[in-house]
């Protein structure tokens, strides 16, 4: 790898930390990223880039090279989580109830870093780079779909994105060819019974009993209705009902999430869940309402782009940096970009010394990963454009 590139990244290493900490102090959740968007816009405009707004608080910045050619995009998600941050860091969240507990502050910093370096190199590459800053990754229906609908990928030939990953050691890179992250869905079930006195159950239809049956029976969907060689998860996240020990309540509500890699499997899980809810309720004389929301599609990496990104990773950071990883059951709306153009999404390790997982109130990242990830993103762009001149 061009040693000059490494030097250029070292020159902005401090700036990367400052950007990341600034975003960290001022987290904003789904589609409320006003300040975040403004800070990003100013930084990009200061670099001389043409910036347009899309998807409410999202941004698209363009950087043309010396002559026309292919166009490659880098994407960062910009939203925080509705979590109250805990801890004593000097850059702790200033916004009550919001925190960058997933690392998106880091994603913004490294894509800004790549933009800064590529701007300095624009007279040396053929083609164009597009920087996408996407709102609301954490909350379906998410920002990526809207970005795509509003033209984020117009003229784009390839796209790369990364997620800082706490379970990988700092500087390690993990990628999966094909399905890497799950298709998501979530559901709410409201069981309607007939309330009454706890001592006279014969006068009631007990929704607590029905809900209990549902929790158990629905767990059989994955083990009995889905091909054992195809991954699927059904988890309940909430169950609410009742007010006091001696009253049988009118209603119980349940909610949960479904994850699969295959859309047919997803459809099977949804169908079986509906059948179990309807028929169980009928058996007990209760009724139910089911609200089922499809989330993000599975994130499917393009195999040839994973090969390419692996080569660039080895060349830029070293052979030993690539780690074999398994797909994960988390969802990620980068999936929508990959449905439209070839690309690769990767996990970038930043877990050294980090004790708390993503979404935890004390989540943090090893900032030594920032310059390394910036270097990799910059190299991916330059190598892609060079290879496809
Ligand atoms: Zn997250
Ligand atoms: Zn995330």
Give me the oligomer status.
Answer: single chain
CATH class of the largest domain: Alpha Beta
> How many structural units, i.e. domains?
2
Structural class: alpha/beta
In short:
The chain is α/β, with parallel strands linked by helices and 389 residues long.
Task: Walk me through this protein's architecture.
With 389 residues, this protein is of the alpha/beta class. The chain folds into two domains: 3-181 and 298-387, Zn peptidases (Aminopeptidase); 183-294, Alpha-Beta Plaits (2-Layer Sandwich), CATH 3.30.70.360. 36% of the residues lie in helices and 26% in strands. It has helices spanning 3-11, 13-25, 34-46, 104-120, 144-149, 207-225, 263-284, 303-317, 334-340, 369-387; strands at residues 50-54, 58-64, 67-77, 126-134, 158-165, 173-175, 178-181, 183-192, 196-197, 232-241, 247-248, 251-260, 287-294, 299-301, 322-324, 343-349. The strands form four sheets. Strands 1-2-4-3-5-16-6-15 form an eight-stranded mixed β-sheet, with helices on both faces. It has a four-stranded antiparallel β-sheet with strand order 10-12-8-13, covered by helices on one side. Strand 3 (67-77), helix 4 and strand 4 (126-134) form a beta-alpha-beta unit. Helix 1 (3-11) packs across helix 10. The chain is elongated and about 80 Å long. The two termini are 19 Å apart. The mean pLDDT is 97. Bound molecules: zinc ion (ZN) (2 copies).
